[in-house]
Amino acid sequence: MPSFDPVRDAVLNSPKIEHPSPALVRRATHLSVLLNSEPPSRPSSTPHTELPDKLSSAEPLGRAHTPINFRPSSPSPSPPPMRPPPLLYNPTHRISPPGSIMTPMSKAEVEMYKTYVGKGTARLAKRKRPRDDSDTADEPPVKKLAGNAGVVVEHYNSRPEVGVVQRQDSPIIGLKNFNNWVKSVLISKFAHPVLASSSIKQARTKGKVLDLGCGKGGDIMKWSKARICEYAGADIAAISVDQAQERWESTRTNKFRASFATYDFCTQDLEEVFPPQVLAQPFDVVSSQFCIHYAFEKEETVRRMLRNVSHYLRPGGAFIGTIPNAEQLLDRLHELPSETQELSFGNDVYSVRFESREHVGSFGHKYWFFLRDAVEDVPEFLVHWENFVALAADYDLYPVYKEEFHTVFSEHQDHSEFGPLMVRMKVVDNNGESAMDEDQWDAVNIYIAFAFEKR
């Protein structure tokens, strides 16, 4: 018995379309006609070109395997096959309201779903095969942090790592480029001379760097261009450390030796997280960018941080970094009217909200900081410069440089090296026009750059 031929069946069920010439009649071939239309009635007197007798005399084949030479006893056409009614989308366990399906997502929802992890993904992550005990035998247990430190860790771990191209789409890309330029100035002025005199040498590379608060590895390329020999990156956010290591692994030129560790400089010592071979020789440079202010919650944590910096930094070595400008932040706080209940100030790019107007002591003066597309209302602490200098002296660290970011710019914008560097880093264009608006320019000056020397 011949098998069912759907094409033959569709052709035999299609209507015949009259041609202007009465001698020619063709069958419809449009898909909607072949599959959905019923054959129109046609006067028996209308001439048309018939198909070969064997095909034209056969009735349309149904699902049953009807022989192709079967001739019906009645010339009346077969009724069209019954089609089931269309299925309607009508979920019984709806999570979202019916009217929300076609509502466009807001900008906030779009940003949220860029890094959203649903319940299904979370369950799959839990079901992944656990690592072999032999892989983690030498690793310290994961430390869970609470309080202010826990908030900081959660914030930076939750921020996605985006590619170089997507970073250029940041609404504060001018500010970010400017901050990177300031760090490059610090490295060139105070780290390069120290690295050049280092006793640690290999081929064409020199020096050893500790990046204290390395984050996602944003400065790795700067150290690669400095042609360092060895690098150690440490940060409180474990996911950020993993991303920093991935960034180092993707470095193709001037690749130095590197070690990475999750580390809380307020509560841990370096020897707890790095193996002895990493710390066997002291560092030439310790860099800590936009992070040591978290230690100023109390004197104990500041002293632990300074002890780690000094103990593993060689004499003559450099300790460089960037911190919030406490003097400016306090001036802005005291400018608020006395009747103001909300102790906050800022603009569309950043905001600072203090816990209290007055504070007793040099430590623990808390505020919350927001920076668009960078920091989401994270608790921080003021760093009083004179207090910082006094404590650092107890660990043989002495200041050699301290300037507000605006001053760093005015000092170096016409420099033979740093002026052209601003153009290459897209701080300004070839005409000297800044990529920052006034709000971003105001935001960058809440920081100062510093450098200490170990004596």
UniProtKB/TrEMBL annotation:
<feature type="region of interest" description="Disordered">
    <location>
        <begin position="1"/>
        <end position="100"/>
    </location>
</feature>
<dbReference type="InterPro" id="IPR039753">
    <property type="entry name" value="RG7MT1"/>
</dbReference>
<feature type="compositionally biased region" description="Pro residues">
    <location>
        <begin position="74"/>
        <end position="88"/>
    </location>
</feature>
<feature type="compositionally biased region" description="Polar residues">
    <location>
        <begin position="34"/>
        <end position="48"/>
    </location>
</feature>
<dbReference type="InterPro" id="IPR029063">
    <property type="entry name" value="SAM-dependent_MTases_sf"/>
</dbReference>
<dbReference type="GO" id="GO:0004482">
    <property type="term" value="F:mRNA 5'-cap (guanine-N7-)-methyltransferase activity"/>
</dbReference>
<keyword id="KW-0694">RNA-binding</keyword>
<keyword id="KW-0506">mRNA capping</keyword>
<keyword id="KW-0949">S-adenosyl-L-methionine</keyword>
<dbReference type="GO" id="GO:0003723">
    <property type="term" value="F:RNA binding"/>
</dbReference>
<keyword id="KW-0808">Transferase</keyword>
<dbReference type="Pfam" id="PF03291">
    <property type="entry name" value="mRNA_G-N7_MeTrfase"/>
</dbReference>
<comment type="function">
    <text>Responsible for methylating the 5'-cap structure of mRNAs.</text>
</comment>
<feature type="region of interest" description="Disordered">
    <location>
        <begin position="121"/>
        <end position="143"/>
    </location>
</feature>
<dbReference type="InterPro" id="IPR004971">
    <property type="entry name" value="mRNA_G-N7_MeTrfase_dom"/>
</dbReference>
<protein>
    <recommendedName>
        <fullName>mRNA cap guanine-N(7) methyltransferase</fullName>
        <ecNumber>2.1.1.56</ecNumber>
    </recommendedName>
</protein>
<keyword id="KW-0489">Methyltransferase</keyword>
<feature type="domain" description="MRNA cap 0 methyltransferase">
    <location>
        <begin position="170"/>
        <end position="455"/>
    </location>
</feature>
<keyword id="KW-0507">mRNA processing</keyword>
<dbReference type="GO" id="GO:0005634">
    <property type="term" value="C:nucleus"/>
</dbReference>
